[in-house]
Amino acid sequence: MRQASKAFLFLALIAGAFFVIDRFVAPIARENTPAQVIEAVGEKQISEESEEYVIDVVYPVTRESAVNADIELFMDEQIADFKKIVQETFDPRVAVGPYSLLTHFKTFSSGSLLSFEIVVSLDTGGAHPNHFVETRTYDMNTGERLTFENVFIPEAPARLSTLIQNDLLGRLSEVGSTVEWIEDGTEPVQENFEGFVISGDTIQFFFSPYHVAPYAAGVQSVTFPLVTLADIFTEEFKNKTS
């Protein structure tokens, strides 16, 4: 009986090596949310398992094809890059276990805007997994992705640098970082502030481990009311949030 169970499990793993599960999760908050966004967010799970690696990625799906295509392209790139790492570096003679690629996400909304925080965890046999945050914001009226350039004017990084530095430095012990680390990670360059989501009447910036604090401190975030940054938003973005 035990051998039969093992055989069944093995066949199930083989059959499920490339399975996809679609399921809808709890709808996002309905307050001030238009009909095209309500209950429009579900999730897709891709799981693969072998002696060399485990993949368990979960990412959002919507009823807007352009949004789905953009997110799926990002996820496909993560999986392809991970498999390349496995192929080039995995050595069963020294590995203590399979490499792994895991993801999960959170959803945020503001009017017709829908944002996602996607956390990617990559374990390639080091002292600990590596994590990073990817954010995406979309206008569900059009399917358009809103990038930093769509949301902020060119002069914005200088203002964001000051505001975010002040916030993190004011919580230095809570953040678990150093002045130098925070200052380096919030220099006034666009790439430092591209991780953001829009939630209600606020904007939240995310910083992956090592960006403004040590790995042990985890992901850091700073939130501002939209009105606080109104002077550095583009007219395009103001029209979408008015």
UniProtKB/TrEMBL annotation:
<dbReference type="InterPro" id="IPR021729">
    <property type="entry name" value="DUF3298"/>
</dbReference>
<dbReference type="Pfam" id="PF11738">
    <property type="entry name" value="DUF3298"/>
</dbReference>
<feature type="domain" description="DUF3298">
    <location>
        <begin position="150"/>
        <end position="225"/>
    </location>
</feature>
<protein>
    <recommendedName>
        <fullName>DUF3298 domain-containing protein</fullName>
    </recommendedName>
</protein>
<dbReference type="InterPro" id="IPR037126">
    <property type="entry name" value="PdaC/RsiV-like_sf"/>
</dbReference>
